[in-house]
Amino acid sequence: MAVVDAHQHFWNLETGSYPWLTSEAGPIFRTFEPAELLPQLAAAGVERTVLVQAMDSYADTDAMLAQADAHDVIGAVVGWVPLRRPDEAAEALERYRRHPKFAGVRHLIHDEPDPDWVLQDSVIEGLRLLAAAGLPFDVVAVLPRHLEHVPVLAERVPGLRMVIDHLAKPPIKEQGWEPWASLLARAAECPEVYAKVSGLNTAADAATWTAADLRPYVEHALELFGPERLMFGSDWPVALLAGDYAKVWRETGTALSGLPPADRAAVLGGTATRFYGIEEPA
């Protein structure tokens, strides 16, 4: 079973536009391209990645697909289409689905002024296009409100597979629990909803976090989703705000160390391979 990093990004500040990325982002306010990540993947034994959009634009999606063409290690691309404009989204999906590695859609809903953006009728119509095409939706859940939307979307868009990015950013640094734990449990009741064990280091204390800080939240997710609906992701290079690739890989592995080998293998690759339709290495 291939080892898969189900959530990583690239961006080029010279050729692309990423308005959310400013000098305030510190170490990640620069270009990140495959040449920098490839040796780190090899060192961790990661064989495939899921490259996820970092901007709501065709240019970002086109750049990712070009990178996927150039690098076999990129097993799937989660791109963007204008969900709020369903007719245009349908045309974009028809074009992008011709690419064998186009495997899902995400929208930076946490950057929208309206926290209920995803519940608009036009967006629901766009999400129904994804369901009809068999393409999943990556859910950026930063606010509790975003996580509340997941069961609503499951009801309004039957057949839509969703994956919650970064376990919806649990309050690790504050050692908090609610409402995150209950909202995640409600989302997990929907059988087509999955979640990513990713981005947890940047929800913890950047200077001191270890597997021990992550473990209660990871174990809660395992109880709710089971390994068959959880997948590991590094969230590189955003992960550099609180460590590096090697530490994220090592500490996540430690947090999962109590699992039976088959369950651990599912979280570290099997689930993502199945969810995104990734072709296994020869």
Summarize the structure.
One of its GO terms (molecular function) is hydrolase activity. The chain has 282 residues and is α/β, with parallel strands linked by helices.
Task: Write up what this structure looks like.
The protein has 282 residues and is an alpha/beta fold. The protein has a single domain (4-276), classed as Metal-dependent hydrolases (TIM Barrel, Alpha-Beta Barrel). It is built from nine helices and eight strands. The chain has helices at residues 34-44, 58-70, 86-96, 121-133, 144-156, 180-188, 211-225, 245-255, 261-276, and strands at 4-8, 48-52, 74-79, 102-106, 137-139, 162-164, 193-197, 230-232. α1 runs parallel beside α8, α5 (144-156) runs parallel beside α6 and α6 (180-188) packs parallel to α7 (211-225). The radius of gyration is 17 Å and the shape is globular. The N and C termini lie close together (11 Å). Belongs to the metallo-dependent hydrolases superfamily.
Number of helices, counting only DSSP H or I runs of 4 residues or more: 9
Helix content: 25-40%
Number of domains: 1
Low-confidence stretches: none
What order do the helices and strands follow? Answer: EHEHEHEHEHEHEHEHH
Q: Nearest-angstrom radius of gyration?
A: 17 Å
The first-to-last residue Cα distance is 11 Å
Mean pLDDT across all residues, rounded? 97
* CATH superfamily descriptor: Metal-dependent hydrolases
Instruction: Give the DSSP E fraction (strand runs of 2 or more residues).
Output: 5-15%
CATH fold category name: TIM Barrel
